[in-house]
Amino acid sequence: MTITEQIKAYTPCCEQERRDQEAMLAFLAENDDAFLRSNLTAHMTASAWVLSPDRTRVVMVYHNIYRSWSWTGGHADGEEDLLAVAIREVQEETGIRELKVLKDGIFSLENLTVEGHIKRGVYVPSHIHMNVTYLLQAKEGTLRCKRDENSGVQWMTPQEALASSTEPWMVERIYRKLVDKAKAYMA
Q1: CA Rg, the chain, in Å?
Q2: pTM above 0.90, yes or no
């Protein structure tokens, strides 16, 4: 099943997801370069909400651009297998190697605004990340930072994760939703 078919088949949990799903499907239908960051308006990304083996904690990274604790995730960069993108990003950003998918298919959908910023000396204009989130479990082990993207990696309880983020919209609309949805999988 293509990612467009997966997004179409996904059952949104709330109005935010329903509206974002509609926007994603329209964007994918109209943009051949939807999976490339060369599309300066929007592009597809993937994230992971990663639970600890005992399912009591989630891994968070301190994101240098957003200056906040956040989930892992990144650009598709041409890859249409967004689960593979989410796994790659967890591994790159945390050093975690062993991951297990806890929920088959999409866990969450969200369109995220990204403010203009400088990355590797180049200005990146404001744009939208059309994001697909997956629920994963990781084996605990030594965590490490990906210094060009984050300056901290930690296991946190869901409440600590909510309290540590300095992005109010992300806390209220995205992370709280993920915490609530993940309760069905937590100890």
Answers
A1: 15
A2: yes
